Records
---
Amino acid sequence: MKNRVIVTGGAGFIGSNFILQWIAQEPGIVINLDKLTYAGNLRNLEQVSGHQHYSFVHGDICDRELVSDLLERNQPRAIVHFAAESHVDRSIHGPDDFVRTNVQGTFSLLEAVRAYWSALNESERADFRFLHVSTDEVYGSLGPGDAPFSESTPYSPNSPYSASKAASDHLVRAYHHTYGLPTLTTNCSNNYGPFQFPEKLIPLMILNARKGKPLPVYGDGQNVRDWLYVLDHCEAIRIVLAKGVPGQNYNIGGWNEKPNIEIVQTICALLDELSPKDPVVPHKDLITYVKDRPGHDRRYSMDARKIERELGWRPRETFETGIRKTVEWYLSNEAWIEEVTSGSYRQWIAKHYA
Ligand code: NAD
Ligand code: DAU
């Protein structure tokens, strides 16, 4: 078994940050398997595209033959599974792709991996890891005074997206319990940072604010999320991969709960400072309350003490430092923004915010 890792969904937001960090900090080779849906963008990986430790394979995790072949040829020591449909609003408009990729795709991947892993020798089997990247949304929604989600909080997913992720988590759990596959599952809170597709709250608000367009805040703006800078998430995944105990779940969070309206106001204030010549300043004049997301979870909050206690991980970035870096990144990467906001992106915005 070689020092090779296969990453699925590595051309997406978190996957590409993970690969960039991996190439900079780890000795092993990374193979990126990605279908390149609307959310996948090889531009994110331009810096490493010619690196001898990186290669890209265009393909679908549902294609078992392709995945089996990839495993046989590369003999990886681990899979880090990011590939998914990830946007809650899209799952409400059309859940099919979510069930296909998140549930059937994870199942198909697990089957291919199980066959590959079963044929390894005993010590290789013991060393192998299947790391499944999941979300805090599988735990459902909290009230204002409820305790944060812990690893033993019962699953209670509310959207087609979170239900599909919960289903995939259960499959991963079952493959450990039944077959002994050395799995690790991470459940993380909301990420933000470079390369996030501007359908999600933070980049959408930055882009709209710069153009003088309304900033659509759902409902009363008091829904709470726990925000984590993406490179902190990537570091946590690397630590779980290196030191996590097979069969275990690890919650990852930012210790940083904030209502959505506060996030939007912070972005507006940063843009007033960093981009004062935009068409509408102060940018907060653009804040517009719009119809709520159906079934909108009220509050997420992560108890991330287990990963700190057992594996020694804590986020490095505060929200203040992370959000400033993020706004600065979007201000200095206009070519990237131009490219991702053409075509199907415009259709999505027109349909969803009509
Ligand atoms: P993303 O939507 O930005 O990227 C998903 C990637 O998966 C894209 O590159 C896409 O092309 C690829 N992909 C989709 N379907 C595929 C298929 N069938 N086969 C191969 N590749 C496919 O997502 P993200 O925000 O980077 O999230 C990555 C993972 O992390 C997801 O599993 C998500 O559930 C989880 N997660 C995300 C967050 C967050 O805040 N974004 C938080 C916690 C967990
Ligand atoms: O909690 C982890 C999850 O975070 C991940 O599993 C998902 O993949 C990721 O998309 C994210 O889900 P959310 O639904 O929390 O993220 P989103 O950026 O879509 O929305 C964040 C909050 O902002 C949510 O309460 C809805 C609100 N919102 C979002 C958009 C796009 C708005 O008020 N207006 C908007 O236009």
Note: DSSP finds 13 helices and twelve strands in the chain.
---
Amino acid sequence: MLKLHEHDAVKFGSFTLKSGIESPIYFDLRVIVSFPDLMREVSAQLWQATQRAGISFDVMCGVPYTALPIATCISVKENVPMLIRRKEAKDYGTKKMIEGNFAKGDTCLIVEDVVTSGTSVLETVQSLTNVGMVVKDAVVLLDREQGGRQNLEVKGINLHSVCGISELLDILCGAGRIDSETAAKVRQFLASANEVKVPQSKPCEDGGQPCKKQKKMLTYQQRAALCTHPVAKRLFTIMHEKRSNLAFSVDVTSATQLLQFADDIGPYICLLKTHVDILEDFSQDFVTRLQATAKKHNFLIFEDRKFADIGQTVLKQYISGLYRICDWAHIVNAHIVPGPGVIHGLSKVGVPKERGCLLIGQMSSQGSLATGEYTTAAVKMAEENSNFVMGFICQGSLTDDPRFIHMAPGVQLGGSGDQLGQQYNSPAQMVTEKRVDVIIVGRGILNAEDPVATAKLYQHAGFEAYENLSNNLCFCTI
Ligand code: S5P
């Protein structure tokens, strides 16, 4: 720990984070690659922590990027095979996320440098479990004691740390490297940072200047106040009150199972997305019960019907037939391929019934044609029909108008895609980097061993990413 301080991997003073917040402590473990003796020491300490904990595993995987060389050192010294996890989910589509040799059922130990909320560790865990590996333990050099241990525990991962931040302060204080006043200042800063859920902010690489990309974000509450669209106003209010920007896509074929999921996951979501035409036992009773569950847990219902025909036809599809979607779905969506007539048709009943519509501006699937001018046209159509259109299905922010809500499907922790063209980004990528408002998660929750705990995790990850923005904190990735 003293060597880390010597080599400026841990610094004290006054550092301006990209958020503009003054921090008395600064971690940059990336520098250790420049000091072979320190690399050896850090790797040895991590290995000893695994031995002390008596963990057994078949392979190791470092969380990209800082922990990759650390894992490599351990692997070579201790003769334990290692895997590499790719970070670039989007461009790789369905290609391999995990490189190296492994067999399904192999146990993998995660190696990390610093843990704050645990999100990066969980992304790596998800990539590994997606390919059939078992992950039970993660070893970390430094635990910032900001909730990471608890978040990992929820997912059944034990965190073994070489050192916690409190202990680090004690060591440095004891060795006379910092005075007790500095230590107290850091403790106080971390306590208040925890209160406002300060994320893993890092000082600017360009000398501590506030990030140029930064823009003041309006909060959900402020946006609710700006909205005249009744459904958008209600949704922003729910997102604020429930501290959730998570939409659950409950793509199951049994109505009973859907209702059970709605009741179990309902407390953690702002929106439930359905595809009622895949239900094998749809009934009016199902609709009544779904509406009651939505009321009980305070979420809205979004039927993902993707209307795409002339106005007259979509109007009939909306109000009649077996499903009578307009009677119960607060929100529907539409392709813009037919032109504005599709919106005019739906809005005939949608507006008087105070329903909302999302236009499909972009899609998450590989090779989607909804790009460029098509997407621009969707924004124009939304602006011209804002009495009914409340936002977009998209993969990033399409307009700065705060009244429109951006919802992104194709969200999974650690997943890259499926075999049929779906492509995934993490909640943080979607919210912090791409600036969408609502993350839509389906199989990330449905296929989890513990869907309720996993939904909570997505809720936490999505909302934390939003708070990073609305607290005006840095969203640059390293
Ligand atoms: O571009 C899109 C638009 C939608 S609405 N890509 C999508 O995946 N969707 C829907 O979101 C899709 O129909 C499915 O219901 C959900 C994604 O599910 P997941 O299991 O891949 O998370």
Note: The pocket of 6-sulfanyluridine-5'-phosphate is lined by residues 249, 251, 275, 304, 363-365, 393, 409-410, 422, 440-444 (CB under 6 Å).
